[in-house]
Write a sequence for this structure.
């Protein structure tokens, strides 16, 4: 299949630190796989291998299906590994701990907090009182685990950031990345169940005393017991890779990936980012990040548009940018009208999207209908 004038430069670019901005309907999946093919076809002593991360299982399955079914892509079907970050991390952890237990339900979380972690929270008075003397133990257990995971999602490390100075330093970085609101939401959860005092003159010191030390001890115990949450699939993999890097251990031979590509990069959170950076580093590779800053909708889980908007600041230096500027999905006037609306976004890279279709859709403005609906809702 032919590559258009925007897709071809991306697929053939020999640089490996690339940012591809790919609006909806621009052939992103097609371009990702054909970049792998073009890079594989380059003359070299050894053929490269590719690790391609997607955000969802559905996207992963689509890419795998295309690799299997498209005869043009058959040469690379055995050298492109497609996975989600969670699945990749889980497989790595599972290979080193055969009795690994994943907490995947609310019942699992309740049991883990109230039983496995009892030796830890029994040393922390506010948490002990909450879990022993209140009727809201089930809700409290979920909040405690949510906040533990939330801190990990924000890139906090239990082994480094349980002390105030280190914690404050990372918090300043998070606020610079626009993630202050997500962090404040975690603090509010702890205040709601009275683990920390919202009226404290120093919330951070209160947090250190009544939760961060508990988080440090609880996380350590859970790892020793081989009990992990969904977020831990990425968290513990990140920490293990960082340990390997500190020891100068890199992936070599047939297990090494020459290219690491990340789809839907606008939706990665801090933990995703740190894990991806470690994966690239341990393979001595660069990251190719792919996504659309205009579709950044996951700030509620700790994702920041700043990561794809400013990759040189947050991912690594020297990123070259390609933009897929032709829309193949929508009627001509829908593409043009949507661009007028999207340009009102303040945090974005400006793009000029060209409609491939010459056909216009019929557009009806239903303002009177919506006014009537509002009147009914208010009455």
């Amino acid at each position: 299949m032919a590559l258009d004038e925007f897709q071809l430069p991306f697929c053939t670019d020999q640089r490996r630190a690339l940012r591809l901005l790919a609006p909806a309907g621009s052939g992103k999946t097609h371009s990702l796989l054909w970049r792998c093919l073009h890079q594989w076809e380059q003359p070299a002593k050894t053929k490269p291998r590719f690790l391609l991360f997607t955000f969802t299982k559905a996207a992963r399955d689509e890419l795998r299906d295309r690799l299997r079914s498209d005869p043009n892509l058959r040469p690379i079907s055995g050298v492109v590994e497609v996975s989600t970050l969670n699945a990749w991390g889980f497989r790595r952890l599972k290979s080193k701990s055969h009795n690994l237990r994943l907490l995947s339900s609310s019942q699992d979380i309740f049991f883990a907090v109230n039983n496995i972690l009892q030796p830890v929270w029994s040393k922390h008075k506010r948490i002990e009182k909450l879990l022993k003397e209140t009727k809201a133990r089930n809700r409290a257990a979920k909040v405690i685990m949510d906040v533990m995971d939330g801190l990990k999602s924000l890139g906090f490390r239990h082994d480094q950031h349980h002390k105030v100075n280190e914690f404050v330093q990372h918090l300043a970085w998070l606020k610079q990345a626009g993630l202050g609101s997500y962090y404040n939401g975690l603090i509010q959860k702890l205040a709601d169940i009275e683990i920390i005092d919202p009226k404290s003159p120093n919330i951070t010191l209160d947090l250190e005393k009544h939760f961060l030390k508990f988080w440090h001890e609880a996380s350590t115990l859970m790892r020793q017991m081989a009990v992990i949450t969904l977020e831990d699939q990425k968290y513990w993999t990140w920490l293990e890779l960082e340990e390997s890097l500190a020891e100068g251990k890199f992936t070599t031979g047939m297990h090494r990936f020459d290219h690491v590509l990340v789809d839907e990069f606008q939706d990665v959170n801090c933990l995703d980012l740190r894990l991806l950076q470690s994966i690239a580093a341990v393979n001595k590779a660069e990251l190719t990040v792919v996504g659309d800053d205009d579709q950044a909708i996951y700030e509620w889980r700790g994702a920041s548009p700043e990561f794809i908007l400013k990759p040189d600041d947050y991912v690594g230096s020297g990123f070259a940018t390609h933009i897929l500027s032709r829309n193949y999905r929508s009627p001509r006037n829908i593409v043009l009208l949507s661009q007028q609306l999207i340009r009102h976004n303040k945090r974005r890279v400006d793009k000029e999207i060209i409609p491939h279709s010459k056909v216009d859709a019929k557009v009806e403005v239903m303002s009177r209908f919506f006014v009537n609906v509002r009147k009914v809702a208010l009455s």
